[in-house]
Amino acid sequence: MSTLRPSRRAAGFTLVELIMVIVITGIIAGMIAVFVASPVTAYVDTARRAALTENADSTVRRVARELRTALPNSVRVTAAGGVTYLEFIPTVGGGRYRQYPTAGGAGNALDFSSADSAFDVLGPVPVYAAGDSLAIFNLGPGSASDAYAGNNRTALASANTVATLFSSDVAPHTMTFAAIQFPAPSPSARFHVVQAPVTFACAPNAATPGAGTLLRYSGYGYIGAQPAPPAVGGMVTSLMVGNVAQCDFDYNEVAASGAHTRTGLVTLRLRLESEGESVRLVHQMQVVNAP
Questions:
Q1: What pLDDT is recorded for position 23?
Q2: Domain boundaries in the chain?
Q3: DSSP string computed for 150-161
Q4: Residue closest to 241 by CA, chosen among 207, 185, 289, 281
Q5: How far is CA 220 from CA 66, 71, 135, 231, 291, in A?
Q6: How far is residue 131's CA from residue 233's CA, in Å, rounded to a whole number?
């Protein structure tokens, strides 16, 4: 006796079913893409703008932080070949020098009538190293007391590494330096310890922002006429920020009550651009020029 077995249907999809699945999947994917593309594009654009903003903000803050250390009347700005150069002499410390001997005739006072090579510090002593420079009563380029020209600046021979050192009549600290006759005393008996000049160079490129830069030059010597750029031996070039479409410096001095008591104002205009996105910052930095 034979047994009838049920027939089995062939497994799989027909060609029509496969085409229908592909078509439906394509329609769904297209609908999803319409709704997803805009948020993704917006996110990418927002991230790019945020990065540009962060770069611009951190750059102007660093420039401002360094400018706060500028030796009074040492900021100068020039332009050459579409590049704006801002130069200044950074200070690393300062204090007051002894003007007169003590009542008992002791103490090493700074002599302005002839070349001198040492004086006692009064009060807190800054941290400084041999090889740093000493500047007194800087009045700026073109004056008789110009640190760039070197007529009121000299190299230090002594050093101090103690941040809490205090100089007094009982325990004076004496700074020694290469002999020099300073042109004029400071009205407040102040001195500054300075290091080699620093230059910021704005080199924008509006047509190709990716090629625009803000550079920092350091490690070069004192030059009477502002170098543009300071292409000298030992110079160190650092990139502050790229993608610079617009960048320039302005420097204005505002006269106050005294002939040599001025306030300087540095304005930095910076615009960064990348792939169609751009941010623009205008930052003003006050420079105290009381020598």
A1: 81
A2: 71-89+196-288, 91-194
A3: TTTEEEB---B-
A4: 281
A5: 17, 17, 18, 8, 24
A6: 18
- Look up residue 15 and give its amino acid: L
The answer to whether the Cα torsion of 248, 254, 258, 259 is positive or negative is positive
Where do we find the tokens 């009347």? 73
In which residue are the tokens 């003003």 written? 284
pLDDT of residue 258: 43
Greatest pairwise CA separation for the chain in angstroms: 142
pLDDT, tens digit, for every residue of 211-242?
Answer: 999 999 999 999 999 999 988 777 899 999 99
Element (H, E) at 57: helix 15-67
Distances (CA, A) of 39 to 44, 45, 91, 223, 279: 9, 10, 50, 55, 21
Nearest to 98 by CA among 14, 209, 191: 191
Q: By CB neighbour count within 10 A (0-12 exposed, 13-18 middle, 19+ buried), where does 72 fall?
A: buried
**Other Cβ atoms within 10 Å of 71 Cβ, number:** 26
- At 106, is the secondary structure helix, strand, or coil? coil
